[in-house]
Amino acid sequence: MNTPMSMLTSRGRVLPFSEKERTEEETGTLESSLLQMIEDNRRSSLQLREKTERSRKEAIRHAARTADLLVKAVNGGVEECFVNEKRIEAEIRSLAVTVARFGKQTDQWLAATHAVNSAVKEIGDFENWMKTMEFDCKKITAAIRNIHEDH
């Protein structure tokens, strides 16, 4: 729009030469100002885009770090549970062996006490037999004395 005629007229009137120069200077200043504003806007948009990209990358890095920490925290708990489970299973196996050994030992003790009880019973039976035999012998002795005294 910078035709010679448009420079000579400003809003439909003819300008004197000094105003023409001033208008051209203002137009040049205006254009340079607009170009400067466009360049500033482009530069600030580019800086903003770069800053946004850096912030996005940093946010992604932080999110990845947070995810890693969360996974480690969860896995640490799971790993601890797994280790504890293995320890408990080993302890259960050990206790099962101990219980079986105590069961056998208890059976042996029961067999021994039954044998002792049987022996004591037999002793008691023998003692009763001995008392019976002693009583019988006394009767026989008394009978023999009576017979011997009577003759």
Order of helices and strands: HEEH
Output the radius of gyration: 61 Å
Low-confidence stretches: 1-11
**How many β-strand stretches?**
2
**Helix/strand-derived class?**
mainly alpha
Mean pLDDT: 85
Counted by DSSP, the helix tally is 2
Mind summarizing the main beta sheet?
A: 2 strands, antiparallel
Which quaternary structure do these chains form?
A: single chain
Percent strand equals: under 5%
N- to C-terminal distance: 182 Å
Secondary structure: helix percent: over 70%
With strands numbered from the N-terminus, the spatial order across the biggest sheet is 1-2
Q: What form results from the Cα inertia axes?
A: rod-shaped
Region (Disordered): 1-28
Family: Belongs to the BLOC1S1 family.
Protein name: Biogenesis of lysosome-related organelles complex 1 subunit 1
List keywords for this structure.
BLOC1S1, two-stranded antiparallel ribbon, mainly alpha, 151 residues, Biogenesis of lysosome-related organelles complex 1 subunit 1
What report would you give on this structure?
This protein has helices at residues 4-8, 17-150, and strands at residues 9-10, 13-14. By secondary structure, it is mostly helical. The chain has a two-stranded antiparallel ribbon with strand order 1-2. Strand 1 and strand 2 form a beta hairpin. It starts with a helix and ends with a helix. This is Biogenesis of lysosome-related organelles complex 1 subunit 1. InterPro entries: BLOC1S1. Residues 1-28 are annotated as: Disordered. It comes from Brassica rapa subsp. trilocularis.
